[in-house]
Design a protein that fits this description.
Layout lengths: L1 E3 L4 E7 L3 E6 L10 H7 L3 E6 L16 H14 L6 E6 L1 H12 L4 E7 L8 H17 L2 H7 L6 H6 L1 H11 L4 H12 L15 E6 L7 H10 L3 E6 L6 H4 L1 H16 L1
Parallel strand pairs: 3-4, 3-5, 5-6, 6-7, 7-8
Antiparallel strand pairs: 1-2, 2-4
Helix pairs in contact: 2-3, 4-8
Bound molecules: D-malate.
């Protein structure tokens, strides 16, 4: 369904019933990356998955898309869907940066967090320079340059040999990111806030999930968040990279379903 917000139209899936679970995708992806989770979790939860503006079926608007803007979009969707209960916010990578922004501005709506393949810190100077380079290349050549550089490292090395059909699927998902959406999200990630100082204030139950072979965000980032968030547990998914939810969906789903059952029970 399309949800109309003040300055954006967002493609959203809303399935199942029970504890509300908001799924926020990573970059440069869309809600299709959550297909194995949408199917499995909607048996026991109300799953709300969003195509962020400029990604998937949600048309682009002018950027930059700050993590705060994306967070407001998520809040707008929850409001439009009349979600009145606290939600479990599950974000992967950039989706995790947005989850932190939701918690920063609206901690009262967050009943739990699932932080997958993400980090709390802002971009380093080197990271910011890399964003500028990627923005420039995308302006010059379209989305291909970023997808060509990310696709070979977004999963664990063994996934490329063992699951070639998954690699094609992820490539197809990436191709559904608009040029304007990609540039605007890169601009927004570049200026995102450091969420490290906020971690001790996170008191809601938090599940941190990270692929053991993540080549984009090192496992040490997940371990650091685990040390700083009091009520957190860390689940390391073996034989998985940055997209553990697609590379090892059963293990990923098991971890999240166990976590959800502790929250609703
Ligand atoms: C993502 O997977 O969302 C991105 O790799 C995050 C980032 O570029 O920092």
């Amino acid at each position: 369904m399309i949800i109309k917000l003040q300055d954006a139209n967002l493609n959203v899936e809303d399935l199942g019933g029970g504890i509300p679970l908001l799924l926020i995708h990573g970059f440069p992806l869309n809600l299709e990356m959550w297909r194995p989770q949408i199917e499995s979790f909607s048996d026991s939860a109300r799953v709300i998955a969003i195509d962020l503006r400029g990604h998937g079926q949600s048309p682009p608007t002018d950027g930059p898309y700050t993590m705060d803007l994306f967070a407001e979009d998520c809040l707008g969707v929850l409001e439009a869907l009349n979600v009145e209960k606290q939600v479990v916010v599950c974000g992967l990578s950039m989706g995790g940066y947005i989850s932190f922004a939701i918690f920063r501005h609206h901690p009262e709506i967050v009943g739990g967090l699932v932080l997958a393949a993400t980090r709390a810190g802002a971009d380093s100077e080197e990271g910011k320079n890399n964003r500028d380079k990627a923005i420039h290349e995308t302006e010059e050549q379209g989305t291909q340059s970023v997808t060509d550089s990310m696709l070979p490292i977004i999963m664990a090395p063994r996934t490329y040999t063992e699951k070639p059909e998954l690699v094609s699927k992820v490539a197809a998902i990436m191709q559904n990111t608009s040029t304007r959406g990609m540039i605007s999200a890169l601009q927004g990630m570049k200026i995102r806030q450091d969420s490290n100082p906020m971690l001790p204030q996170i008191e809601v139950p938090t599940l941190i999930i990270h692929g053991a072979d993540d080549q984009i965000i090192p496992l040490s980032e997940a371990e650091a968040m685990h040390s700083a968030i009091s009520d957190s547990q860390l689940e390391i998914i073996p034989e998985a990279g940055h997209l553990a939810n697609l590379e090892q969906p059963l293990r990923f789903n098991n971890a999240v379903e166990t976590f959800l059952s502790t929250l609703s029970g």
